[in-house]
Amino acid sequence: MATFILVPGAWHGSWAFEAVVPLLERAGHTVHAVTLTGLRPDDDIATIATANLDTHADDVLRLLDRTHLTNATLVGHSYGGMVIAAAADRAAGRISRLVHLDAYVPRDGDSCWSSTSDGYRQSFTAGAAPTGYAVQPPAGGDPRRRPHPLGSLLQEIRLTGRFDEVPRREFVYCSGWEERTPFADLHTRLQADPAWLVHDLPTAHNAMREAPEAVAALLLGEDVTDASEYARCAHR
After folding, report:
1. Helices (runs of H) and strands (runs of E) counted in the chain
2. Which of 13, 111, 119, 223 has its CA 20 to 30 A from that of 140?
3. Digit-coded pLDDT (tens) for 23-33
4. What are phi and psi of 183, to 5 degrees?
5. Distance between CA 123 and CA 126 in Å, rounded?
C-alpha cells in the first residue's frame, strides 16, 4: 500500500483534499493531508510574516521524519508543486513518486512569482497590499481560505538535482480553464520530456473539489481514460 502526502495550493489547508482522502483510504492507503505553516487558523502574525518556501518544505520533511516515512508519494496542487519539489530535493531518497496536480514544476532558481502569469502576479500584489506580508484570497471561493504568506510566493527555489532523481514524476493538466491557466507552457514542456508522465483532466483548477473521483483514480494509478470519464461525469 502507498503513503500519500497531500499538499494544498495557496490560501488552502488540508481541507482542500477532504473529498479525495476517503477515496484513497478506502483503497487501503495511508494519507496525510497537510496545512502549511502560516495558513493554520491559530498562526500568529509573526508566523505568517516569516513563513516562506523553505518553511513549507520543512513542514513536509518534518512529517516524513515524525512518521518515519520512506517510499512516499507527494502530491502538490498549484503552489504546492513548489513545496513538493523543494521537499523531494531534500528528502534523501525517501520520495518514490511526485504528482504535480495542475501545479508548478520549478527549475532551480524559479519562484512561484517568476513561474506564474501576469494576472496572478497582479493578484499577489493587490492581495498583499493591506499587510505587506500576506496575500488575501481572491474574491469568492471557499470561505475557509486564509491569507497566504507572501514570502513563500517570492522565494526562489534551490534544487540540487535530487528532485530530478525521483523515480516517478507526473503532471496533471486541468484543461477546463485554458483561458486563465498559468500552466499551458509547462504542459507543453513536460509533454516533450520523457522523464514525465502527463495526464489531462477536463476540469477547472480545483480538480479535487470538482472531480475528486478522477483525482483519486489518477493517484491510484487507474487508467487516465477512466479518470477523465469520472471528470466528465462530474460536469453533467
Report:
1. 11, 8
2. 111
3. 999 999 999 99
4. -105, 10
5. 5
